[in-house]
Specification:
Layout (H helix, E strand, L loop, with lengths): L5 H17 L2 H16 L4 H4 E4 L2 E5 L11 H10 L15 E3 L2 E5 L2 H10 L51 H10 L10 E3 L2 E4 L1 H11 L3 H10 L3 E3 L5 E4 L3
Antiparallel strand pairs: 1-2, 2-4, 3-4, 5-6, 6-8, 7-8
Length: 240
């Protein structure tokens, strides 16, 4: 897959951001969870965050609600892990007012990481389909037209080789790594009981499965026998 592919570049950026945040403890996990919620429903942006230049203001308490713990606990995690832009004259003040709105202001670096996770692809213009005129010129008398619309029977789909809807992309990738699948980009290497793939393999797998790269990385990081490497790759224990 060419490195100039915009989708691949977005996946790479998201993978780097997810790795960076994962290394920031509970505060980083909070921002990963927030990004996941925002990506799932873009309409929640107005309720949860505001963008102030290159920084993000996480509205409080709504911006940190329904993320596992109380908004106050999540707020303290962000502060403890150094992810907030704190006024040195008031270091214990977590919530500030910006342009009339109250929230926790993420520092520049953590804001950039979250924005990398929230990057949306440009919509593809839809070309209207022109239906060819029917060649059947037979006129049906008005009195004999059916009251029921004709029912079209869709052609059966060939589902062979396609993953089922309940396939877990994270566990499926782990299985392919343990099988030492040679088709994974960069291949699989082995070191002291661990099997390793590069970030490119994780990003490509996420794209192929239609999932966000950072969501896949976050899931992999919580699976037993898996650990995300500092460069965004993945290590899996050779034996389950």
């Amino acid at each position: 897959m060419p490195e100039t592919d915009p989708d691949h570049q977005r996946a790479e950026a998201a993978a780097r951001a997810a790795t960076w945040l994962s290394a920031r403890g509970a505060g980083g996990e909070t921002l990963l969870a927030l990004a996941e919620v925002l990506s799932a429903d873009w309409s929640t942006w107005d309720r949860r965050i505001r963008r102030k230049g290159e920084q993000l203001l996480v509205l409080f308490p709504d911006g940190l609600a329904d993320l596992g713990a109380s908004p106050r606990e999540k707020l303290e995690a962000l502060a403890s892990d150094g992810l907030l832009d704190v006024n040195p004259l008031a270091p214990l003040r977590r919530v500030i007012e910006v342009d009339g709105e109250h929230g926790a202001l993420l520092n520049l670096e953590s804001s950039r990481q979250v924005l990398a996770l929230l990057a949306k692809p440009e919509p593809t213009p839809q070309v209207p389909t022109v239906q060819a005129p029917s060649r059947d010129t037979t006129t049906i008398p008005a009195g004999k037209r059916s009251a029921e619309p004709p029912v079209s029977t869709p052609a059966p789909e060939d589902n062979r080789g396609r993953p089922s809807a309940d396939t877990d992309p994270a566990r499926a990738l782990v299985e392919r790594i343990r099988a030492r699948d040679p088709d994974l980009p960069g291949g699989v290497t082995q070191t002291e009981g661990w099997l390793r793939v590069k970030r490119e393999a994780v990003c490509t797998w996420a794209q192929d499965q239609g999932v966000q790269a950072y969501v896949l990385i976050r899931t992999l990081g919580h699976l037993p026998g898996c650990r995300v490497t500092p460069d965004g790759g993945l290590e899996v224990r050779e034996e389950p």
